[in-house]
Design goal:
Layout: H1 19-23, E1 87-90, H2 92-98, E2 111-115, H3 125-138, E3 143-148, H4 151-163, E4 166-171, H5 178-186, E5 190-193, H6 198-209, E6 216-218, H7 224-240, E7 252-256, H8 261-275, E8 284-290, H9 295-302, E9 308-309, E10 318-319, H10 322-334, H11 356-365, E11 369-373, H12 375-388, H13 394-409, E12 418-422, H14 430-438, H15 465-472
Parallel strand pairs: 2-12, 3-4, 3-6, 4-5, 7-8, 7-12, 8-11
Antiparallel strand pairs: 1-2, 9-10
The chain binds pyridoxal-5'-phosphate.
Pyridoxal-5'-phosphate is lined by residues 123, 125, 151, 221, 256-262, 347-348, 393, 395-396, 423-424.
Amino acid sequence: MNAACRSVYPVEQVLTSCPACRKTGRESLLDVVYDRSDPGQKLPRDFAYFLRPESGGECSGVWQFRELFPFYRSPSEILSVGEGRTLLQKADQLAMKLGFVGRGHAATPSLFLQYEGYNPSGSFKDNGMTAGFTHARMAGAKIVACASTGNTSASLALYASQAGMKAFVFIGDGKIATGKLSQALDYGATTLQVAGDFDTCLARVRAIAEQPSAGVYLLNSVNPFRLEGQKSIMGRVLRDLGLGRGGKIPDWIVVPGGNLGNCSAFAKAFIELRALGMIDRLPRLAVINAKGARTLDRLVNEIGLKWIPAADGDELAGTFDEQKVGAEWASMDAAGAGGRAKTIASAIEINRPVNLSKALRALHAMNGVVRSVDDPTIVEYKAMVGRYGFGCEPASAASVAGAHALLQEGVIRPDETVVCILTGHQLKDPDVTVGYHMGITNTVQGEPTRARMFANQPVRVADDLSAIAGAMGVSLS
Ligand SMILES: *Cc1c(COP(=O)(O)O)cnc(C)c1O
């Protein structure tokens, strides 16, 4: 369904956008919607329903929540590689460092890291890809493609090789982290290095996928089935906070924003869980941009762009001021190269976020805020997460940096329960990590580097036992 014109298309039809809206040049994203009045799709009004013991085949933390996205016809169509077995990690050391205190008597801080780097291809993208590929198989796709800043291509390439489909990934001439590129190559995807940035690559691959003769199934986050799978990330957050067993929903979800698919999926999950009677309120949402790619921050906080919900109360339906957005795109184009996104957090180096309208809807539904953090801050918080957590790639650390900025602003209160999404694995972008610890300035905004409080350089030492013991600070008898 399209949120504005509300045209509805059958689930088997392969569409990357609403044909009716595309013709008129209007916003054409699609949502997957379910008819919950259908007795086959009815669920108990209790989140504990999802806490059933894992049965033999059910090793996926995505498909544990399959009744939240029942678009497939039979479970045999599901393509899963055991994704979504991820952890909600209580981050007490990090919390104390940052000033989160927790609630009530003898409280411990309530800062959590949802570690999505612990997925088969090392990023949250697998949550969506398993659902996207399940739909691709339903639709009989043989060729799949995406444009990517890295993680989408790594994930797509993994699933394509499992599904036996031909895969094309479009990467631009912007940055791509070594780890991510190596994955796409290793899994056997054909990698097309197009002369242009991510936004250009996406426009090109969309244009190709829109031609029925090409037979190419598009797996960027304009694909609404991907976002259905990403809803399960919130399912696991709620599960691990003990919902259905006396636990409560968190106060805040903090997530880095690139193409804005993830934050959109999160809000859709909460909206639907409330409609199903499984939760009674929604957490607040904080979307964190990199300062060098702060399109959403600018549109929301400077231009005042807002979601305009439909009058009839359908929570997924609504519109926004497309003229304001068009004017912003025009002024970004006029600024030329100087106006292009540039950040060390390559996964969120996006000019025109494709899920903008859904993100506006998410901010509306979850009483959300948008902030941006600069590159030196991102690398500093990345090192802090590494030191006190599971580690993550640069874009992921924007969530923790943003949560701390909101705490200092007084928007987040120190006793609130805050969940930051660590979107990608630490080993995705080792160059940034090593650069930080070795004192190589690799941030890209020309801003002064920070103090590098967590720098941890290798210690050079001669091949001599007493010199080595001296460097270790231990004594030899
Ligand atoms: C894709 C990605 C993002 C951005 O997510 P969106 O859904 O595009 O906003 C953030 N971090 C990492 C590590 C990613 O791979």
